[in-house]
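## retry 2 of 3
previous attempt timed out at serialization; input unchanged, resubmitting
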Amino acid sequence: MRDRQSEIEMQREAEKLEEAVEEAATLAGKLGLDPFPVNYWVVDYDDMNELIAYGGFQTRYPHWRWGMQYDRQQKQGQFLGGKAFEIVNNDNPAHAFLQVSNSLADQKAVITHVEAHSDFFANNQWFGLFAEDPDATAMLARHADTIREYMQDPDIERAEVEKWVDHALCLEDNIDQHRPYEPVDTHQEASEFEPEEIDEQLEELNISEEVRRQVFDDEWLDAQADDEEGASFPAEPEPDILAFLRKHGRQYDAEAGKAVEMEEWQREVLEILRAEAYYFAPQKMTKVMNEGWASYWESLMMADENFAGADEFLTYADHMSQVLGSPGLNPYKLGLELWQYVENTTNRRHVVEHLLRVEGVTWRNFHDIVDFEAVQDLLEPDDLVAAPTEFDLSTVDPDDPRVDAEALEAARAGELDLEAYPWKLLTYEGLAERHYSLTKPQNRGFLSRVGQEELERVSRYMFERDRYEGIEEALAEVDYTVGWDRMREVRESHNDVTFLDEFLSQEFVDEHDYFTYEYMHASDDYRATSTDAADVKKKLMLQFTNFGKPTIVVADGNYDNRNELLLEHQYNGVALDIEQAKDTLERVFELWGRPVNLRTVVKRYDEHDVEVARRRDSEPTPEEKGLEIRYDGMDFSEEELDRETVEHLAATDVDYDTKPEEWLA
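## retry succeeded, writing output
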């Protein structure tokens, strides 16, 4: 139990952070963010590790996975130097947890980061697919209570419930995350015909052989057995495997040696875990966008608006370097860079449109005529928005759209501390000008790097308007808010896949030194292979399409008219790890109750071709073949399929040439 001293420390920390919480929310609103309200909780080190293990919630259903994640998180902090800064959940109101031992600079960084996360939760349409007004804390607590009650039910063995949860969790990413969540309605009459074994049904009727022969003659029985058309379902491949198993699955009764109906608790547990999979799916689908969005606004508030005090700035800089400098595919770094690129390109296009309307300026002579140094100077924010504390407030026009009239009045009356919070004097328009991206030192060359192709494209789609006599007149009408407005539009509708697909350009790849690398079979090592944006995009897509997992769909629930399940792997150039696939099929069998099949494409390398390629320092060409794996509850069997049979499985425009174990990691 937590001691009294710890309680007092956390209470003091909470009181110390009250002003920071209030001002961060106010500043977020001024910057155009519209988050869910956020409740902040101060917790100790152990509580933080537990919350991280639980996915940001205080109550989850009993399962060994939480203990494993807790242990991993604790060891990461002890042995790898990992540090937990924050965790926040998608809820209304959102709940964020601050670790009591963190520095004030870290706490402020977390608070500003969380306000941006909550804005993303509240406004991104992918999060809205689950619920517009989420109450996840209550939902997960109900789920925990339900599963706990089943485990404590004397008529149900706890081990059976745990195994059932294990089976379902193996498929938690096999949902259709692009559709809104809807509970499976098992009472509605199925449109598809789901047949049972004819002999089994007749056996259960317990009728005499004589009556059986009179009513069901051999010709009719043979017709049912030999009907190659069968009653195949679903009509289209079904990506939501959990829903399909929830509706059509059975459990295997080892004593009876056949499939029997699921118990009610089994169906309910499946639906609970499916609902949670849908709830957490948007977080997986928008990891780069969400973390980049939060990092962008955190950086602006903490560094550009001096939310970190002078004595806290170095600590904050160290904090941010740890976050952005993490090795591997870092969603914070990639996301931040992409959001900055969206802002910069939007602002640049807007400025270019104005400059192309200056008399004598065309897309052909743009770089020869435009004085980019002069343009940069003209775009700089004026003294009022750049340094409100150094401006004579008596001369400020309260009707200036960049000025908050109420704050101006309060400042004149001495009721507002502009030294601590200069941003309070400004509106959204004023802050957009104050933080205009093209005038920042790191971006000063961005406007001049506009290419001829982009200039021609902008010029082609410009409508005829009145032209400006000079550059100064043109830039006087620049709207400083267009970059932020565009960012909010993108935030509303995109996920990581569409975000990368639209905004990862060759210019971005070159600016940030992205490249691809491949595993070389001939030399058994990795080599850098390309800096082409299309190649980089393909590699990144591999990490985010379907959460970076293989895309498996239900192809047939009555495969070969035998009530067997046929799953198909939508092959994208990366072969499945066959051993892991078999482990998963064993789990699926428990949820289907009858034999299960999986079709995929495998790559085979001829040893002679590999040796020849090694000598030539090139890559061998693999042979791709179809493979069908069947599991009947006891044994596995494999059958090679001709290429035509699995032709429909192969992606035609994507080829990810990486090692399966790297992809699955």
